[in-house]
Amino acid sequence: MTYARAMTKPVDIAPATGRLGVLTPGMGAVASTFIAGVLATRAGHAVPVGSLSQLAHIRLGKREENRNPLIREFVPLADLGDLVFGGWDPISPNALEAARTAGVLEERDLGPISAELEGIVAMDAVFDQRWVKRLEGTRVKTTTDKWAQAEALIADIENFRIANDCDRLVMVWCGSTEAYQEASAVHMTIESFEAGLRANDDNIAPSQIYAYAAIMSGVPFANGAPNLSVDLPCMRELAAREGVPIAGKDFKTGQTWLKTLLAPGLKARMLGLRGWYSTNILGNRDGEVLDDPDNFKTKEVSKLGVIDSVLQPEVYPDLYGNVDHVVRINYYPPRGDNKEGWDNIDIFGWMGYPMQIKVNFLCRDSILAAPIVLDLALFMDLANRAGQSGVQEWLSFYFKAPQAATPVPAEHDLFIQQTKLKNTLREWMGEDAVTHSEAG
Ligand SMILES: NC(=O)c1ccc[n+]([C@@H]2O[C@H](COP(=O)([O-])OP(=O)(O)OC[C@H]3O[C@@H](n4cnc5c(N)ncnc54)[C@H](O)[C@@H]3O)[C@@H](O)[C@H]2O)c1
User: Fold this and answer.
1) Of the residues 362, 382, 409, which one is the last residue of a structural domain?
2) Which residues, given as ranges, of the chain have pLDDT below 50?
3) Among the atoms of ligand 1, which is closest to the Cα of residue 88?
4) pTM of the model
């Protein structure tokens, strides 16, 4: 298929030839559901529901031109048939065990792909229980020296690349949420971080060692948890120096995704907000990890930023200057991965009269997260082949706390994020941005 009327100069994108290795630090509920879904899709047993890269179309040119190809036919993405999977985990031995423990997918779906899943064996993790108190890791690297851990991960990446005959690799963090941390002196420059690795600095968390190893190996890194990982000055500097795309953080799946649908709607109508109370019950391993206050704090910070950023209280003090925003997560084992979220939203209208909105979302966490892992893997690989490096802000669509490429904070509004994603693809392919104005 050809697409005429190129208005801007397209970006040079290397073709997606050969195999793409997708590495996930963390082979738990999300990673195993993602891998199983790709295998099932490949075998013709499933449709990749929730994935823009597989199902979404993209309008090109003016409406009357009627050009609306699938995204995957418009941009040169890796084919699902060319993906190979690997990862690290301190508990799960392989993707099949991980999927069975997570209990997200039923045996009737796992059965036909069980041999393939079992063959995806987790490598020993760089793990330190101080960062995830609720987990007992047994499949961990023996060295506790951080520099040696980084070297071991770099060797794992290279060995995986050779063993699986990969043309390219991407890494998507699907590991646990680590204890809350703020950036410190060791995170400021490449030099200070490398000195910290050599000195076994306590402020360096395991996820940062994976990020360092990925970038040093030329492997794009997307961060699905709220951990700092690549949201650090040293990692931005390293990504720029090595020419590697990075993105984060924290997959935008359930409650926060709904928030970024609803809050822009209130603002579009200039309706006021007085309070937003969100609570969840969740019974999977992620819920267990988040039951520790230090780990929950990391998640809470990631979830709380959304409303302020969308509603701009500094611009609209009368409407959004006095909002109580509370987020709770309660670990409740009977629910497993099937999280239930409640939102009570206190809004006000004309002459200040109050109203309420109640949302009760019975979701499946990993079912929502899996297509995000797929899209991030494919789009990060595309960015890499397009010669992009540093923070990929156009992928903000997928994150609760999107990292910004510039000092201006990233956009949280889902619809603006979607426009940004699609316009970036249009521009890279030499098509006009779609502005939805009368003229276009
Ligand atoms: N499912 C969602 O909707 C969703 C949304 C946003 C973010 N997340 C985040 O994605 C991550 C994965 O979620 P999940 O439901 O799969 O959790 P999970 O607990 O099932 O899986 C996480 C896995 O990471 C492993 N792990 C912990 N520390 C590790 C390390 N240092 N190296 C390698 N592996 C390590 C754990 O053993 C576990 O198997 C979590 O951080 C979660 O907060 C999930």
Assistant:
1) 362
2) 1-4, 6
3) 33
4) 0.94
